[in-house]
Specification:
The complex is a heterodimer of chains A (416) and B (332). Chain A is mainly alpha-helical. Helices cover 72% and strands 0% of the residues of chain A. Chain A folds into 2 domains: 2-224, no CATH class; 306-409, no CATH class. Chain A is globular and about 55 Å long. By secondary structure, chain B is α+β, with helices and mostly antiparallel strands. Chain B has 3 domains: 42-126, no CATH class; 146-249, Hypothetical Protein Tm1070, Chain: A, CATH 2.60.290.11; 256-332. In chain B, 27% of the residues lie in helices and 37% in strands. Chain B contains 7 helices and 19 strands. In chain B, the strands form 4 sheets. In chain B, strands 5, 6, 7, 8, 9, 10, 11 and 12 form an 8-stranded antiparallel sheet that branches. In chain B, helix 4 (78-88) links the parallel strand 1 and strand 2 (93-97). In chain B, helix 2 crosses helix 3 (51-62). Classes of the chains: A mainly alpha (416), B alpha+beta (332). At the A-B interface, helix 4, helix 5, helix 8, helix 16 and helix 20 of A face helix 1, helix 2, helix 4 and strand 2 of B.
Chain lengths: 416, 332
Amino acid sequence: MIAVAVTLLLFPLVGLSLGRRSLAEAFLLGVGITGSVLFIAGVVHVPLVVAMVLIGAWGVGNGVWKLRRGIARPRIHSPLATIVMIIPLVALTFAAAITPLNDFDGRAFWALKAKGIAHERSIDGTFFHGGTHDPRNQYPIMIPLDGAVILSLSHSLDDRHLRWLYLAILAALALLVRERIGRLVSPAAGAWCAALLVWIPQFSVELEGGALSAYNDIAIAAFAAGAFFELLDAETRKSEIRFGLWLAFLVLTKSEGLPFALVFLAIGAFVFRKRIITPAVITFVATAALLVWRWRIPVGDEEDVFRLLPTIPEKLDRLGMAISAFPRHMLLMPRWGVFWIAVIIAAILAARIDRRAWLAIAMIASILAMYTAVYVTTAWIPSELIAVTADRLLMHAIAPSLFLLALATRRANGSA
Amino acid sequence: MSGRWLTRIAAALLFVSLAASTLPRLIAIVNNARTLLPLPYEARRERQMGTWYASIEKLRRELPKKEQISLIAPPRDHDSAVFANYYLYPIRTRLFAGRNAYRNAAPDPTRPAIVVAVNASHAERTEYDVLRNRDLAAGRRIVTEPQLSAPMTAFILPLAASLDGPSPHTFLIEATLENPNATPAEVRVAFWPKGLIRTIVIPARTTKTYYDFVYQLFGIMNAGWMRVDSSQPLRAAFYFANRGRGEATLMPNATGDATRIAPAPLHRDTKLFVINTKDSRATVILNGESIPLDPHAFISRPSETLPKVSGDVYAFVTTRELDGRTDFLWPQ
């Protein structure tokens, strides 16, 4: 119960301390802020327990203060879409409460790190210095830090306490999509996009990468969604700060978060213009902290994609396989249904009527191009890497894809 | 048909394509959760992961909490070791991909002494020797047609060993004992200088074979010499084998002291071995120097040249050729 309370109360309250946001956005911001602040505190050698207490006290105090001033009551549009969205979430909640974690990366890397941090109360203790087997030692640890908060407050290293975090991230992503697309396109479009999202097998039921696993791909998708919606909402107050925060969260969540954030910054420069300095600085701070931390600890068996980039000319024979990787996986019906076919049709339709569609298309194309380059450079066997990662990487582009679907429906409805 | 209806139909088709895959799996997930619901949490994990997880739970109770352990898993079962590492934490582990990786780390003083063997079906606390013996038992002897000696009732095996060098060097004695008699032979084997004694019975007209004589008889990895005494004349063959390199050398079944080693080319890592086969003290004269030996002593000395040895002892020389093969120079 403590784990549920921490997940569903602490993180949203920390997120609310940034200002009045929807519950879903507050949760995702809270997850990001808690993990990032603890990470940076760890890098500058502030004891993790002290940092946890401070962020908890500050976040809860500030959040409760904001709550006292009232929060926007969510209006339930499209009851059918809402019910459709709730059904898988309820089923997954039931399963998460009962079924033990059973995935690969979640146990091998992410939850193990959460246990290590919770046990040692440190991000550079013996755990990260060969004290135990930690296969991907230099993987970013923002989400494991959130997990460590939950485990520490639960006084247990049992991964059952972490199940709620990963499920809640999916629910928050769905609600964020619902709210933002609801505002940017139409409430009905937002509601149906959220409903579709939670019915995508790769998000909901897939053992490796889905909501019942402890992978971080849904978190990346959620933070990328937050950044993408800030791009669309660039005129709102302090949007550039939130955009920067989402990018920092991307950097500190997974290795691919850094190039992902750079793509966002490049596209964001056209949207925010001079204001891009703020997100660039925030991203730089997160990146610098990550690099300093990595410099202090031994390398695991992870791949350094940046170092491999100069080898691209030698590996151009892989280009065909890499380029065809995503289209092949987009057509995997058991994981995506006809979702990507619909997105492509929607992109063609939406691009004609709404300039914002081009932003979404640019985002998706950039993300896929970046990951294709990784497939070309990788030191792993490309076909094996593609087989186990392509579907999870496609998850990262979910927000712009759903936005295109929403825009296309508006066009179709408008032409009625 | 209006655009609104087209949109609805398209959205419905999209949803159906997703639900067609998600719904059955969601139902399966919920049903699985329902079956797990009555069980305690650890029992649910056991149900998911089978006896493998039960063995991990047992280890968690047995292993010392503050000592790092060696997880040895065959490379094909690497994932099992990764998960064992996960479930054993905060017990700290160090992973070794196979037994050879562990033995090659022998010079590393930080190599954890406690050994846990993991594979896809279970994990168990064990000893390195046990894993080695399993691998050897599963393999094949090098010598398939041993050259048996004439029947004898007592003899000495000047070198008996069960030892590992760096991978792949695996030293052992492949033994064959044949009882050609009409009555069973009771064979007493003494391993010196440890002073361990075992008695084995070889039924009438039966042949017994051993892939690692020292370990199979005495359960230790060590080096020394052996005295074999049998109630019936035995035909026997003992090969000093390097299983990792597929090499084997027939050992003499010595019957008395001998020190006169014929000149032969020496290569590298040349060593003189001297054995006192008696129950009393002996003296060996080595290059003019007199060295007293305890009863049943077994000593070795590095040597650049062929040493001059005399005394009431048994002496022989080993030298390693450039290709790593060991040559034996036996006394005449």
